[in-house]
Amino acid sequence: AQSVTQPDIHITVSEGASLELRCNYSYGATPYLFWYVQSPGQGLQLLLKYFSGDTLVQGIKGFEAEFKRSQSSFNLRKPSVHWSDAAEYFCAVGVVAGGFKTIFGAGTRLFVKA
Amino acid sequence: KAGVTQTPRYLIKTRGQQVTLSCSPISGHRSVSWYQQTPGQGLQFLFEYFSETQRNKGNFPGRFSGRQFSNSRSEMNVSTLELGDSALYLCASSPDLANEKLFFGSGTQLSVL
């Protein structure tokens, strides 16, 4: 069955420090991969997506993610975190099954220290 | 363009009651998906509709049902509410058959007492 694992429930990073959020997926075919962000009191917003091609994808707000097929991973990175990045981050995989459905991980909550 | 609109924003019900939640997708979007969000569980997929047809269903009991109308608006219904149904219910719409990007509403926060 398809699944997404985000091993870190929460992470605390100092402002200005680099960030890496981990994501592993389980899916038999070539995956469609996404990262969404949910800021307090706001809806989920797409940060970036990977369908094919270059395995390093750039997103909004300075985020990037790298697809590694051999590790079934799609980790999200940012070189310098800002206080406004504090939010919950969800990794997701798009599955073609009848129609198309998106399966989300449990999320990683990011706290940013001043 | 208006975003995805979910009503009501908050809802309080008691065990055994039923509830209907509404979702209006972005104009032109034909696919609507529903998710249940609870702390620590992330977003659990409920079902997805496209052109009034349910294309996919998650692993939820039959008490959870939905439908989509010809104008792409969607409703989900939960009957015989249980305490564990308390959650944020999110609706997302998408323009494509491939459903590649989801546009989310703000959700309906359901509390079951």
Explain the overall architecture.
The complex is a heterodimer of chains A (114) and B (113). The model of chain A has no long low-confidence stretch (mean pLDDT 92). Chain A has no helices and 12 strands. In chain A, strands 2, 5, 6, 10, 11 and 12 form a 6-stranded mixed sheet that branches. In chain A, strands 3-9-8-7 form a 4-stranded antiparallel sheet, with no helix packed on it. Chain A is globular, with a radius of gyration of 14 Å. With 114 residues, chain A is an all-beta fold. By secondary structure, chain B is mostly beta strands. Chain B contains no helices and 11 strands. In chain B, the strands form 2 sheets. In chain B, strands 2, 4, 5, 6, 9, 10 and 11 form a 7-stranded mixed sheet that branches. In chain B, a hairpin with a 3-residue loop joins strand 4 (31-38) and strand 5. The radius of gyration of chain B is 13 Å and the shape is globular. The relative contact order of chain B is 0.33. The mean pLDDT of chain B is 92.
Quick structural overview:
The complex is a heterodimer of chains A (114) and B (113). Chain A is built from no helices and twelve strands.
Topology diagram in text:
The complex is a heterodimer of chains A (114) and B (113).
Chain A: E1 3-5, E2 10-14, E3 19-21, E4 24-26, E5 32-38, E6 44-50, E7 56-58, E8 64-68, E9 73-78, E10 87-97, E11 99-104, E12 108-113
Parallel strand pairs in A: 2-12
Antiparallel strand pairs in A: 1-4, 3-9, 5-6, 5-10, 7-8, 8-9, 10-11, 10-12
Chain B: E1 5-7, E2 10-13, E3 19-24, E4 31-38, E5 42-50, E6 53-57, E7 64-68, E8 74-78, E9 87-94, E10 103-104, E11 108-112
Parallel strand pairs in B: 2-11
Antiparallel strand pairs in B: 1-3, 3-8, 4-5, 4-9, 5-6, 7-8, 9-10, 9-11
Defining traits:
heterodimer; A: 114 residues; mainly beta; 6-stranded mixed sheet; 4-stranded antiparallel sheet; 12 strands; B: 113 residues; 7-stranded mixed sheet; 53% strand
